[in-house]
């Protein structure tokens, strides 16, 4: 990625997909070039949380909402210490943000962090194209001396693909740290950081949990060195088929019978630990308006998603696994994709979506209470 920032809004920009489709617009954020996997997000709010979600590492995010940047950027809502998206695509960026918490414009924040974006693009047409053809590699090029179309397309096709990418260690913490419980400490949880969002340990801390966030490279011994009442596996980027280390650690936790909760990438890790396969979705689920049914209660939830891979597990039966019986606990009502797993003979479950849900919705917050109930039951 190469970038500069001066006068970006007046600079021409070009978006080139690996199948040769081209969109033209204006630079938004930094000027230069960037590459990644083109994906679309259907959220109408929460763009700051999306940009700073480590699960979006090496992805170029297309916003389906036409107006982006209306509330600017503040210093409280980031999910990590930096923006992780490789590039950003919007139709009509806000000229002037309007929010009492705003500290600067989104354009300024993208430019300050060197994130190359493009505006003035027909994002509806681009999203329809990705739905029909699937997520694919993309490049954004901006500047007054753009390469010819053939050169840009060749560079896009040389970029690495998401399938087969092992990315968790690139975004996870390098050193363990502790998020203290709010109020009385009730439990200790070891959280394996595969790309964790800041709101996740906060949601646990609200429930009296002291959270020890561990690097993606943590071993089973590292996990149990904190004497946990429960173990958590976070969200994160990349292909779960490459996450052999995390799968090995999770199997070690399952063997000991410690209460276990996983979200997003953690759901895929549980699937692999139980012996199920994973596969790449055509264009994935991204946004904060995805309908999911909790099959254990029949309740339908509106949920926040960000995943391009899914677990390949049978929806219509209980499966035998090395750790006892398992079943699909949640399913997406749009396409029947597996959205949750639970063991029937051990205290372990996971969901494919984001119950911490910053900036919302909060329909699935009860899952943290379910995790607490598992730890209470184990202690009893």
SSE diagram, text form:
Layout: E1 2-4, E2 12-17, E3 22-29, E4 31-41, H1 47-51, E5 59-63, E6 67-68, E7 87-89, E8 92-93, H2 106-112, E9 116-119, H3 123-133, E10 136-142, H4 149-158, H5 168-171, E11 177-179, E12 187-192, H6 199-205, E13 209-214, H7 220-224, E14 230-233, H8 244-256, E15 260-263, H9 265-273, E16 277-294, E17 300-312, E18 319-321, E19 324-332, E20 338-343, E21 348-351, H10 366-379
Helix pairs in contact: 8-9
How would you describe the overall organization of this protein?
The protein has 380 residues and is an alpha/beta fold. Helix content is 22%, strand content 33%. Strands 11, 12, 13, 14, 15, 16, 17, 18, 19, 20 and 21 form an eleven-stranded mixed β-sheet that branches. The chain has a seven-stranded mixed beta barrel with strand order 2-3-9-7-5-4-10. Strands 6-8 form a two-stranded parallel sheet.
Low-confidence stretches are none
Give the distance, in angstroms, between the N- and C-terminal Cα atoms.
54 Å
Number of helices: 10
By secondary-structure content and strand pairing, the structural class works out as: alpha/beta
Proportion in helices: 10-25%
Kindly state the number of beta strands: 21
Task: Provide a concise account of the structure shown.
This protein has ten helices and 21 strands.
What labels would you give this structure?
about 20% helix; 11-stranded mixed beta sheet; about 35% strand; about 375 residues; 7-stranded mixed β-barrel; globular; 10 helices; alpha/beta
